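Write out the bound-state structure for zinc ion.
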Amino acid sequence: MTRVKGRPPRPEPAGLFHWTCHHGAKGILLDGVVRPNLGLSWWTDLGSRTAQTRRATVLTSNHITCDRMVHKFTAAEPDLIFRWRDWVRVMQPDPQWVTVLESNGAPDHWWVADQPVAVRLL
Ligand SMILES: [Zn+2]
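---
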């Protein structure tokens, strides 16, 4: 369990991944950083390119017509990423917004970051 002041506690995952389309990957490949979009970047602990991951991470789509699983980035700074449920509990965003978001996908596999996170460029 890692604790950062003013942030939710963070259990250690095996790995945290940012799935994205070609558009999303362009900026990340430039400087190796995933930046928040509208306040958050979205991550998951699901690292296999499967239908389950696709369903679970529905929220990571920024372009509805794109294949959001073309690129997978692995967080090099996982300490900056928080479990969605913990983030909601501590940050207390609009409950209606949370309900709408959680009506799709698998929120237990969602992780978020509110600051830029470096990724491993393989
Ligand atoms: Zn796209």
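---
The chain has one domain: 17-120.
The chain is about 25% helix and 20% strand.
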